[in-house]
Amino acid sequence: MSGDRIEVRALTKSYPGSDRPALAGLDLEVPRRRFVSLIGPSGCGKSTLLRVLAGLTSPDEGTVDLFGSGPRALCRAKAVGLVPQTPALLPWATVRRNVALPGRVNRRAGRGTDTVDELLEGVGLAHAARSYPHQLSGGMRQRVAIARAFALRPELLLMDEPFSALDEFTRESLQLQLLDLWQQRSTTVVFVTHSVQEAVALSDTVVVMAPGKVHRTVPVDLPRPRGTSAVTGPDARTIADTVRAHLRQAWDGGAAEPEPEPTGAR
Ligand SMILES: Nc1ncnc2c1ncn2[C@@H]1O[C@H](COP(=O)(O)OP(=O)(O)OP(=O)(O)O)[C@@H](O)[C@H]1O
After folding, report:
1. Which residue in 6, 64, 179, 210 has the fewest CB atoms around it within 10 Å?
2. Domain presence at residue 148
C-alpha cells in the first residue's frame, strides 16, 4: 500500500457467459498526479479496468490500491470522477447547475469545491452558463462533463474515450483545455483512447494493453506545457511510432519480449 500511487496487482475479471476473461492478471502502477493513457485493441479490457478503478464493478481476483484506499472508499469520499464517452447531463438543469451540483454533494462530503465560474471559464463555456443541454453541441456537452468532473476536485479522474465522437478541431481544443485544468490541479488522470496521437499529446505514459493485460508502458518524454509544435514534432512522432509498433504486437496476440521492468506507468 502506498499513498503516492495507484497500484493494481494481478487483476482478473470475467463476465458471466464470456469464454475469455476481460482482465487476466493485469498489473499497473500510476504515480499520483500523472496523466496516463490506456490504448489497445477493441475488447482488451480498457473500460473494464476503468470500471474496477471507479468501484463500479469488483474484480474476481487481485488487488487495487488507490493512494492507500480501495476504489469503493475513494468513491464514497467523492474523490473519483468519471467522464464517459457520452456525457449524461441533467436535461432540466442549466450548464451552470449541471457543473454546480457535484459541488453541493461535495460540501456534504466535507470536500472543497472549485468555483463553477472558474471551471466554465476553463473549458471555454462561460458564455453558455444559462443554456440547457439540448441547446449545446456534442463538444460543448463534453466540456460541461469535464468541468463537472473537475468540480469534484477528484484525486483520480477516469476518462473513457471522452473525445472520440468529436471532430478533430474540437478534439484538439478540448485536449488543450483538459491539460490546462489537469496542470492547475493535483489530479491523477487515467484516460482511455483509440488515438495514438491523442495519447502521446496528453500523457506522461502510454499504457499499451493486450487482451486482459498490460503489454507495454511507453514513457512520453516531451516538455510541458505542450504546444502544438511539441506534440507534432519529431520526438512526438518517434514516440507515436513506438506506441504503434507495440499496438501491432498487441493485436498480433502480444507476442513481444517480456516487459523489461515491472509494468509501472512511471
Ligand atoms: N457487461 C458485460 N457482459 C459481458 N461481457 C462484457 C461486458 N462488458 C465487457 N464485456 C467483455 O469484456 C471484454 C472487455 O471489454 P471492455 O469493454 O472492457 O473492452 P475495451 O478495451 O474497453 O473495448 P473497446 O475499445 O471496444 O471499448 C470484451 O470481450 C467484452 O465483450
Report:
1. 179
2. yes
